Amino acid sequence: GINAEYMGVERVIAPTSDYNHSEEHEDVDKPYFAGYSSINIHEEMLRDSSRTESYYNAIMGYQSLFQGKVVIDVGCGTGVLSIFSAWAGARRVYAIEASDMAHYATNIIKDNQLDHIISVVHNKVEECELVDEFGYPVVADVIISEWMGYFLVFEAMYESVLYARDKWLAPDGVMFPTHAVMYLSPFSKQSIYNDKILFWQDVYGVNMSAMSDLARSTAFETVVVDTVDADQVLAPPQVVKSIDCRIVTVEELREMRASFTFQCNVRGNFHGFIGWFSVYFCPLGIEGPQTVLSTGPEDVPTHWRQSLFFTGDQLWLNIGQEIEGQVEVCQNAHNHRFIDVNLHWTIKPSSIPRYIPESSNLIDRHRRIQCEAQNPPQHHCFRHSKHISFYY
What we know:
With 392 residues, the protein is of the alpha+beta class. The protein is built from eleven helices and 18 strands.
């Protein structure tokens, strides 16, 4: 059997036989769950009002889904979503948490006089069985989880959520959130580009622009998690992946590909592509207010911010200029919590006469690649590819 701590749940028995618990995953998961034992990450999530209030409003807006029902909260953390579910009238809530935060969740739930409804299970989802007070396997009416990582799929918590869905959700059960959408758009973020690349032009009065090529090839090997203002987005976003949480498979989320064609509606320096996501709480056939939690540039900033995939180049684009290409988002081969992003794009020629501001802050005077890359071509295409890793 397993060494699971029993915290108010009726019984926790041996793990299911079909769970592939590899030593490689164990080595990855130990630091992952240890990180969620820290108070800091939970404070950051709880202070994210867009996140927490979206879940609260969705639960209270669809109380009929929760009243008298069985709910499973995957990765409950401090237990706040379990408590919201109990407030909405849930008959029984199973709050599963693999990190040591489960101890604190238990105390929080007791302090709020909800331990007769909420049972905390300190274990990985994949390593526990749940049975009710009569000894029968649990069947959940609702599975709720705040499972989203940077660019939605970083950390791969969706694997545990979908495992729980396939194991415990009733045929007519509901996933909360119900849907998720990943977006991509070209962007300009001059402050970061200046800090990483243009810095080398003048270092205490020394011209170190010879370092620019090295900086350009190494500074943005990994994603930058930061916010971008709406006016720094050069074209309307396009969908990378639209997800119905009721039917999506793990395999679909481990490897995603999409094509895009952006038409710039803002002129400016193109520095790369920005990714973000939105999740929706809108069960089909059930009346209630549609609640959307969005993490995009036009929304109130969240703790997810946005994922900035810098290309390392600085290319001036005109209004109407097009960028065509493909994006691949794949689970890292060595660490299933990480992702790799591959971008391939072509900048089409502009039919608009070139206009470039005089400000030296906008143009890298020491660019060494072909001039049409610095100042996008009027009669030529610029093609490029970039592999970016996404890890801690």
